[in-house]
Amino acid sequence: MLLLSAGRAGCRLLAVRAALSSCRNGGSALRSAPRPAPLIAPRPALRPAPLLVPAGLALGCVGAALGAAARCQESRGRSVPAAVPAAPLPEPEFQWATFWALLRPQLLALSAAVVLALGAALLNVQIPVLLGQLVDVVARGARTHLEGYLHAARPPALRLLGLYSLQALLTFGYIALLSRVGEQVAASMRKALFVSLLRQDVAFFDAHRTGQLVARLTADVQEFKSSFKLIISQGLRSSTQAAGCVLSLYLLSPRLTALLLLVLPVLVSAGTALGSVLRALSRQAQEQVAKATGVADEVLGNVRTVRAFAMEEQQAGLYCAEAERSSGMSQRLGLGIAAFQGLSNLALNGIVLGTIFVGGSLMAGDQLSPGDLMSFLVASQTVQRSLANISILFGQVVRGLSAGARVFEFMTLEPQVPLRGGDTIPSHSLLGQVAFKHVSFSYPTRPGHPVLQDFSLTLPPGETVAIVGPSGGGKSTVAALLERFYEPTRGTITLDGRDIASLDPSWLRGRVIGFISQEPVLFGTTIMENIRFGKPGASDEEVFAAARLADADAFIRAFPDGYGTVVGERGAALSGGQRQRVALARALLKAPAVLVLDEATSALDAEAERAVQAALERAARGRTVLLIAHRLSTVRGANRIVVLAGGRVAEVGTHEELLRRGGLYAQLMRQQAAEQRGTE
Ligand SMILES: Nc1ncnc2c1ncn2[C@@H]1O[C@H](COP(=O)(O)OP(=O)(O)OP(=O)(O)O)[C@@H](O)[C@H]1O
User: Fold this and answer.
1) Which atom from ligand 1 is nearest to the alpha carbon of 628?
2) How far away, in angstroms, is 455 Cα from ligand 1 center?
3) Which neighbouring-strand residues pair with 423?
4) Whose CA is nearest to atom 12 of ligand 1?
5) Model pTM?
6) CATH 3.40.50.300 residue ranges in the chain?
């Protein structure tokens, strides 16, 4: 996997270079190639020298090696932190049908791009021959008078100019069209993938890290797009050009061509050997960069903790040591690339020299004209570029297909519980009676670990039922099952006697159940928009009313921007109690029949808890409330208290009844009272 991905940036690098040089076409053989800008940091770049056939192939063979080097550099600049390596997932199959469905709307543009690319490639085969003819005219012209020279040189020069212009036009056309196709396919992939991800079951998100999912949306789509464009453009162009130019070489001079082909195996073997050394070096350097980035990622992400423990210097030292090691490895890699560069330049220039030398002897025997030699050099350079591109493309095909397969895998994944579909209960007849009947449940990620076992509980309409119990007893799981985040392994959950599995999940979540968790997440927008998230399309008045009910209106209006106050990332610009009340307003806006409060006040200090508690009590009136709580002081007023331990109901009763019984509840009460005394 690493090996495969190692050449990625290098391939891009060479592809960019190839694209640049293809724009310049075969006539640029005697011009020096421009150096591409470094991807992230300055590094030795692979410079296409005026190469001959074997040189080109060797260059292609080590392309992947240099790709590895470039990838090492690239990983520093990637938005998906390389420091969080994705857990190895089984490689999915590439779904051709899905790809075809995405491509079909672009078929016309794609066909046009293919035709234009082929046209540009065929012109490239013509150019060396015409250049040779021009050189012959130029060589003769040096021995004649100016007028005669101009007369002879003008037609081939004009023909060449015409071909160059036509080629420029074709190149522009196919690159523009391919870009359009690539971008549209990529945009469709991203949109479809995002929509599909949002439809997935909550269990799916338990099994996949956000980083992995974001990587599929970004890096994988990008990789697929680049590969797709490269394969179409370079694949077509390079194979056409290579075949055409090899034929031209043979027609120009079979002997010279044969001679060059003799040197080929030596260069290929040397290039391959060097390439594997560079790949290994690059892999090590890449891993080290990932390690250093991992340290930075963790430290910066937890800067408050670092500050709180005054660990800045220690953490900086940790990062510097990793960065130092990374720098050392990159330098070794740089040395390797430099050695490769020097040796390959020596070999390649040696071959140019050899060709001119041997070609000169052929010219002396009148078997080759100066123009032919020129054509030979130009055509051979075109072949080397084409072969280099083709060899890179093999790796690119593999990478592109596996990136595409990863994207399609989640794009076509069907959730177990669809977002919509099913019955609804008319609001005028909705009572809000909830019942869990013999529910057993294990999380899909831990199938052998039962969290709830034969759990039964009825929440009469308008009553508050509290669930308490030791940590890990399954309290939050009860709430998650009611929201249909997961499906029970056994048993049923009903709303007004109807199995919730038959009800429309989006209606259930969007209209019936209001859910407040311990640390509700707000979006980094205004308070108004955050509350309106509970019911898109709600009027300002409705938002204000919900905020008043949640006891949030007063503090919101006290902000200079009132309801227009931006709450910062995840609501960081609000206090815990304020955040909780905004979240409560958001939940109340949809006027839910059932309110689920999952440790809604446990993250708050005593004063904030009192404020939120008061708001919650007001909001609870007339609704069925499932109150999950750690602090037993908050459940005293509940109509019924259920003590949940080890996934089973241990006790049920009112606060007084449970205290009298002297069981687990009474024991928990004593524990908490003792803890409280200890902290005072
Ligand atoms: N998404 C999940 N995937 C796998 N196991 C989970 C998941 N969420 C919770 N669990 C496990 O299920 C069990 C019950 O967890 P749950 O959060 O329901 O307990 P709880 O009673 O609410 O605990 P606490 O009072 O500490 O919040 C625990 O053993 C927990 O590790």
Assistant:
1) 22
2) 15
3) 503
4) 451
5) 0.68
6) 434-522+588-678
CATH code of the domain made up of 96-253+368-412? 1.20.1560.10
DSSP letter, residue 86: P
Q: Which atom of ligand 1 is nearest to the CA of 477?
A: 18
| Residue 232 neighbours by CB under 8 Å, 6+ apart | 110, 113, 114, 117, 178
Q: Could you tell me which of 425, 456, 429, 419 has the C-alpha nearest to residue 440? A: 456
Task: Give 492's strand partners.
Answer: 437
491 C-alpha vs ligand 1 centroid, how far in Å? Answer: 19
pLDDT at 5 over 80: no
Give the model's pLDDT for residue 670.
87
Tokens 């560079």 belong to 278
Cα gap 513→500, rounded to integer Å: 12
Check residues 643 and 571 and name the one with the higher pLDDT.
Answer: 643
User: In the CATH scheme, what is the homologous superfamily, with its name and number, of domain 434-522+588-678?
Assistant: P-loop containing nucleotide triphosphate hydrolases (3.40.50.300)
Lowest mean pLDDT among 80-84, 301-305, 341-345, 492-496: 80-84
Structure ipTM over 0.90, yes or no: yes
Distance CA 176, CA 181 (A): 9
pLDDT of 77: 34
- Position in ligand 1 atom list of the atom nearest CA 647: 14
| 25 has a pLDDT exceeding 80 | no
Partners of residue 465 on adjacent β-strands = 626, 640
In the chain, which residues fall in CATH 1.20.1560.10?
A: 96-253+368-412
CA nearest ligand 1 atom 23, residue:
472
More confident residue, 74 or 176: 176
> Position of tokens 């030795």?
44
Taking CB atoms and a 6 Å cutoff, what residues make up the pocket around ligand 1?
206, 443, 445-446, 451, 471-477, 630
Lowest mean pLDDT among 115-119, 409-413, 627-631: 627-631
CB of 526 closer than 8 Å to CB of 564: yes
Helix (H, G, I), strand (E, B) or coil at 459: strand
What per-residue confidence (pLDDT) applies to 540?
A: 93
Q: Which atom of ligand 1 is nearest to the CA of 644?
A: 21
Question: Is-contact 449 644, C-beta < 8 A?
Answer: no
637 contact partners, CB below 8 Å, separation of at least 6: 464, 617, 655
478 CB-contact burial (10 Å; exposed 0-12 / middle 13-18 / buried 19+): buried
- Region class of 576: left (phi > 0), else alpha (psi between -120 and 50), else beta: alpha
pLDDT at 680 over 70: no
The rounded mean pLDDT for the chain is 79
Give Cβ neighbours of residue 213 (< 8 Å, ≥ 6 apart): 197, 205, 410
CA distance 266 to 276: 16
Sign of CA dihedral 22, 25, 26, 27: negative
Segment (H or E) for 442: strand 434-442
Which pLDDT value is given to residue 268?
64
Q: Are 634 and 599 in contact (CB under 8 A)?
A: no
Please determine, for residue 566, whether its predicted confidence score (pLDDT) is greater than 50: yes
Among residues 572, 474, 472, 577, the alpha carbon closest in space to that of 518 is found at 577
Percent of the chain with pLDDT over 90: 31
Helix (H) or strand (E) holding 598: strand 594-598
The tokens for 3 are 């090996």
Check pLDDT > 50 for residue 586.
Answer: yes
How high is the pLDDT of residue 295?
A: 86
Instruction: Give me the pLDDT at residue 179, please.
Output: 92
Mean pLDDT to the nearest integer, 501-526: 88
In whole angstroms, give the CA distance from residue 533 to residue 586.
7
